[in-house]
């Protein structure tokens, strides 16, 4: 929240920024002005989204060798020549450079190259790991208990935890593509069916694009004995559950961190 910088500077107070993204995402945002000046964003028009232009290799971002334009944050795929979000990112990075320190919820070993590069740009940048670990540590070592303040776009269905309790150890594949991603899941559905494995699939009501039903009816019939589908769930509790053997994910940063700290193998799409 860089808007606090003005107030802290006015009163002569130090200001430590907590940036909730990964180090890679932070680095990508620091390059917003460079990308604009090189004409790589905004895209000239919508055809650049499908004509292969997004496969352009960006070989000059420090610590992120040969990343493609497609793999940069989605804000860089805008076709609006007056996109205010790009200006906002530039302003945020400029403000971040004036912070007393910057904290990132990541691990040194996970993003070594980009963190080394960032340290030359922001000397007072520190990695503190996932906040969930700090909360868990406090809950087990302190007499004072804290409740985490959750903010979800969807209502959680905690009943799935009872279903997990009834399953065999390390037998469930957890499938969740986050709160934003929209996809066409028919092939994925049949991939899960053909695996013959049990799974807990979080499939939001709006997950499907241009489809009359969320999954094929044949899929429901094929997997009804080994598949539980819910619209949303308490992911932190699911990933802590000893029944869960793996996580099929879109690789959102929170999902990645939660999987790592709970030792759940990731299948990344």
Automatic annotation (TrEMBL):
<dbReference type="GO" id="GO:0080043">
    <property type="term" value="F:quercetin 3-O-glucosyltransferase activity"/>
</dbReference>
<dbReference type="GO" id="GO:0080044">
    <property type="term" value="F:quercetin 7-O-glucosyltransferase activity"/>
</dbReference>
<keyword id="KW-0808">Transferase</keyword>
<comment type="similarity">
    <text>Belongs to the UDP-glycosyltransferase family.</text>
</comment>
<dbReference type="Pfam" id="PF00201">
    <property type="entry name" value="UDPGT"/>
</dbReference>
<protein>
    <recommendedName>
        <fullName>UDP-glycosyltransferases domain-containing protein</fullName>
    </recommendedName>
</protein>
<dbReference type="InterPro" id="IPR002213">
    <property type="entry name" value="UDP_glucos_trans"/>
</dbReference>
